[in-house]
Amino acid sequence: MAFSESASAESMQANSGPRRPRILLAASGSVAAIKFANLCHCFSEWAEVRAVATRPSLHFIDRAAIPKDVIFYTDEEEWSSWSKIGDSVLHIELRRWADIMVIAPLSANTLGKIAGGLCDNLLTCIVRAWDYNKPLFIAPAMNTFMWTNPFTERHLMTIDELGITLIPPVTKRLACGDYGNGAMAEPSLIYSTQGEGSRKDGRRSACRVVCLSLVIV
Predict the structure, then answer these.
(1) Which single residue of 1, 5, 26, 156 has CA 20 to 30 Å from 78?
(2) InterPro entries this protein is in (predicted)?
């Protein structure tokens, strides 16, 4: 679905009372992306969700399992949605639309791109254009050797300077068979904190509490 197609529906909702939080979920190319549909389900219980997936992440995501009310964008739509001057630019429109962005999983490759300011796909273009007055969370997922690599430490320092919140990986048996730190936190930890306490102080606070709950592992 093109971004503009949902604009009229949003304007109709404007007079129907407070809107739900707008959550932009994004997945990059890690095996942990097999949990992306579950993550979408968790958030869509209480928020309006749009999803962005890089081309490598599509190898792991079951698109049929994505909730029907979640609009799903891929790298191709960054280009196919634009044909002439005056058309909306997808990564800018998504940046404007979202109250919060959560990248889960965040691969080592995409972490490096973000830290270096690269913007060669829809996800990284959104991050490059992001308003850092709004929360942006990353949930890395990678092998332990990649997580403990000196490059990762440097990249995380840059991420912290930008004001991006790190959702630390957890220690478990990894997809490669190794046991160690580097696995993405479980999506169920989001859903378990979506009760009344996470909604007390408005949209931004609700989003922050729910996402920060991922750190408690």
Answers:
(1) 156
(2) Flavin_trans-like, Flavoprotein
Check residue 114 and give its pLDDT.
98
Quote the DSSP letter at residue 126.
H
154's tokens: 């440097």
Q: Give me the sign of the Cα torsion angle 93, 200, 133, 115.
A: negative
- 4-17: pLDDT as tens digits: 555 545 544 545 66
pLDDT in tens, 48-69: 999 999 999 999 999 999 999 9
Q: Which residues contact 68 (CB under 8 A, 6 or more apart)?
A: none
pTM: 0.82
Domain carrying residue 101: 20-215
For the domain that residue 126 is a member of, what is the CATH number? 3.40.50.1950
Q: Give tens-digit pLDDT for 101-149.
A: 999 999 999 999 999 999 999 999 999 999 999 999 999 999 999 999 9
- Is 7 a member of any domain? no
Our count of domains for the chain comes to: 1
AA identity, residue 192: S
19: its two tokens: 């809107």
| Of 41, 42, 59, 91, catalytic | 91
Any domain includes 6: no
Q: Which member of 42, 59, 155, 176 is catalytic?
A: 176
The answer to whether residue 5 is domain-embedded is: no
Instruction: Name the nearest CA neighbour of 25 among 3, 4, 54.
Output: 54
